[in-house]
Specification:
The protein has about 375 residues and is mostly helical. It contains 19 helices and two strands. It has three domains: about 150 residues, Serine Threonine Protein Phosphatase 5, Tetratricopeptide repeat (Alpha Horseshoe); about 130 residues, Serine Threonine Protein Phosphatase 5, Tetratricopeptide repeat; about 70 residues, Arc Repressor Mutant, subunit A, CATH 1.10.10. A two-stranded antiparallel ribbon has the order 1-2. A hairpin with a 2-residue loop joins strand 1 and strand 2.
Length: about 375
């Protein structure tokens, strides 16, 4: 999002992109993508190549949320190319920097991402651009959180959230960094501060009925409950977070909530459930390319006693879903039988196909043991 688009407490964006941003903030990412891509096509049709820069930034931000991080990098890098080629580097480079650094941070390319985000902070502050300074601080905070530098995460994320507080916006997803701050504060044992920030997130989630905000608030509530030793309440909140996120197209957020659920199961000594959740989170992070978060999930798995599953061994949930699908049930029928979402069935089925080396339901049926006890 460009610096020139923002003033304190208000926002200006190119025609057509306003709707795209609103759709993105509500979590309707596919619809937002359609709107923004049409906007981009109109600029190209009219030969307005320089002003494409801003919409490319919006698309990069959207694809970060959608888990399509390499595509986000392509959009952000193209935006930066336009800034430099149009002679606007001195005043506009910072506009594209958080869009360049965020997907790289998500992929675990932390040195490159940190350099871009630090440059973004410096240039944004020099241009009195509080919005882009806050966004780059949010990316730096996420990098620190990914590397388990909780104090560094707190400093950067508090700077970003301070700008959001001054904005007085009801929209929690403008810079979606409050859950990261709460996680860092819980890790530091600063529960009262975590509660304060979580309370505002919960109010925003309720006011606008934002699924992402409600789901990440539940994840934060799970972390706080677990820190206080109430593992049953923590489990309920984490399960609620996963259920909400499974309905939407933000796979990284889903995987993070599944990871928290696995951590809670591990602490409660529910080894089978812990392993199943942590393996699911690990596999989701691996599919996205979130290297540092794969390592985090594997570290949690290593803390569970007993025999770990091999990379190609089906989990209990995967075996159950594979058996039902092999018997001819649709994804929705399996979801109804197991009281999960159809997207959960689809995600598990994809892993089953990969592990078993099959490409169709017919091939799966030939591989799966359909005896009564299976």
């Amino acid at each position: 999002m460009s610096a020139g688009s923002w003033t304190e407490g208000s926002v200006y964006t190119p025609p057509g992109a306003v709707l795209g941003l609103e759709l993105m903030w509500t979590g309707r990412l596919d619809d937002a993508r359609d709107v923004l891509e049409r906007e981009l096509a109109q600029y190209e049709l009219r030969g307005m190549y320089i002003v494409r820069q801003e919409v490319l930034c919006y698309l990069a931000e959207l694809e970060c949320r959608a888990g399509r991080w390499r595509r986000a990098i392509r959009f952000a890098d193209e935006s930066m190319d336009i800034v430099q080629e149009s002679g606007q580097a001195a005043t506009q480079s910072h506009v594209a920097l958080f869009n360049q650094s965020w997907p790289r941070a998500l992929l675990g390319r932390t040195d490159e991402a940190r350099e871009q985000a630090m440059t973004g902070v410096r240039l944004a502050e020099a241009n009195d651009d509080r919005f882009n300074a806050a966004w780059n601080h949010a990316v730096l905070g996420f990098i620190d959180l990914s590397l388990a530098d909780l104090e560094g995460a707190r400093r950067n994320l508090e700077s970003a959230v301070a700008w959001l507080d001054r904005l007085h916006s009801a929209e929690a997803a403008i810079i979606p960094c409050v859950p990261d701050l709460v996680e860092a504060l819980v890790g530091l044992g600063r529960i009262d501060d975590a509660e304060r920030h979580l309370g505002r997130l919960e109010e925003q989630a309720q006011a606008l009925d934002r699924a992402w905000a409600r789901a990440t608030a539940l994840r934060c509530r799970a972390l706080i409950a677990a820190a206080g030793g109430d593992l049953d309440a923590a489990q309920r909140s984490a399960e609620g977070s996963v259920e909400l996120l499974e309905r939407g197209p933000q796979p990284f957020e889903t995987a993070r909530s599944v990871l928290v659920l696995g951590q809670i199961h591990r602490r409660a000594k529910r080894k089978r459930l812990a392993r199943e959740s942590l393996e699911r989170a690990r596999d989701a992070f691996a599919e996205l390319g979130a290297r540092l978060w794969v390592e985090r999930a594997e570290s949690e798995l290593a803390r569970i006693g007993g025999r770990p599953s091999t990379p190609f061994e089906l989990t209990e949930t995967e075996r159950t879903i594979a058996s039902l699908v092999a018997r001819g049930q649709t994804n929705q029928e399996v979801a109804d039988a197991l009281f999960v979402s159809a997207s959960t069935v689809q995600a598990n089925l994809k892993r089953v196909y990969q592990k078993l080396g099959v490409r169709s339901r017919t091939e799966l049926a030939a591989k799966v043991d359909l005896s009564p006890e299976s």
